[in-house]
Amino acid sequence: MNTEYPLETNNLKEQIKFLAAMQGITMLKLKEAVNTKYGKHDSIRNLGNKLRNKTFRVSELAEIADILGYEIYLRKKS
User: Which among 8, 43, 50, 58 is least buried, having the fewest CB atoms inside 10 angstroms?
Assistant: First the structure.
């Protein structure tokens, strides 16, 4: 099974939903886990709006990746 996925900035919402579903986690449970671990109080609606409007911060992506068990790497294109 592939455990490495290229970041798709045009399709970030669907990519996060896909990775969460592979872990058996709903977006609501994912956001609750982020809120708990990182002491936040954001709503699922807030997350959905950020993903839809593409106003998502890299730090928020890193938190979600952490909850899903992934790391973010920057790799020079070959």
Answer: 58
